[in-house]
Amino acid sequence: MRPVELPFALTQPGQSEVPLSEKVCFLRRPESYPDRPAQIEVKESHMSWVFLTQAHAYKLKKPVRYSYLDYSTVAARRDNCAAEVRLNRRFAPDIYLGVVPLNLDSSGHLRLGGEGEPCDWLVKMARLPAERTLEAQIARDGVDEAELRQAVHVLTRVYRESAPVDMTPAAYRQRFRNDLRENLEELADPAFALSSDLPDIVAAAQQRFLEANVELLDARVAGGRIVEAHGDLRPEHIYLGDGPIIMDCLEFNRELRLLDPVDELAYLAIECHRLGAPHLGDVVFETYRADTGDEPPARLIDFYASLRAMLRAKLAIWHLRDEHRSDAEEWRARTMRYLYIAADHAAKLD
């Protein structure tokens, strides 16, 4: 492919460290892509940039490091791209097309594939219509429950094919203690000025559940119920119609993917609830029970759901750390919405 001429001096030939801004500028340009799309749609998150053509999506991971992930080196980003493709093909084998190098050639030009030395890597995916997501279908009150059941069938197949995780019951319970403590600490941070006693009420109910239900949680481990799951099962990641597709598995931290499927499905249920469709959680669990023969008690589902809602409240309130955000009140309202959902489930634990 012909190298793209950039309107500024790029990194010197032979130097592999290219600033992120230059990579993004290059990838914004339609002529950078083999199929020469008419335009590029660009989306940014805390961890990546996504560049959308008419047919494909290319994800570039940012060179960042947090306590739970490390994208700080080219090698780390390459490995995480490969992991993302491998893990997501369990749920969407025809969508994750591979890993593509972003190369720097001998004359100092960036190329998407082709000759040169890799200065970064991108995940290449087939692009799917946004209107097919479960989130979009909830918004227009158009969810076909039969199609949702088909998506759950995909999930239960992966769960059944996954080997049980080697974890002790004590370690499993300790994870919840840690999560409970961290969620409460963050939500109680005075910097957020969250004038609500719901975090304390919910955390206390969760703590009582942990103390009173040791045998129940231990049985989930002993029964081989903890598997390597999806890890980020939200309505925006589920595509219905023309065969269900589940995208965006959490690839960067295996520990966060080691879950009881009931926990993962409770996460999906609370997100459906937040979007105004709490009844879809019943559809999800009815299908899960029929597919697996697993009959988790209601109090276990409520425990998982309350803990997941608290986690999402914590993640939502983190957006308030940027005091200049124009959407701060929206994130504060979302935090409270999660807390109300958490409290609803926590009230059923005693």
**Straight-line distance between termini:** 64 Å
Please identify the top-level CATH class of the largest domain. Alpha Beta
Number of strands: 12
Quote the beta fraction: 5-15%
Q: What is the number of helices?
A: 11
| Rg (C-alpha, Å) | 22 Å
Query: How would you name the CATH homologous superfamily of the largest domain?
Result: Aminoglycoside phosphotransferase (APH), C-terminal lobe
CATH topology of the largest domain: Aminoglycoside 3'-phosphotransferase, Chain: A, domain 2
What is the general shape? globular
Q: What is the string of helix and strand elements?
A: HEEEEEHEEEHHHHHEEEEHHHH
Domain module tally: 2
Poorly predicted spans = 1-15
> Which structural class best describes the helix and strand composition?
alpha+beta
Would you tell me the overall average pLDDT? Answer: 93
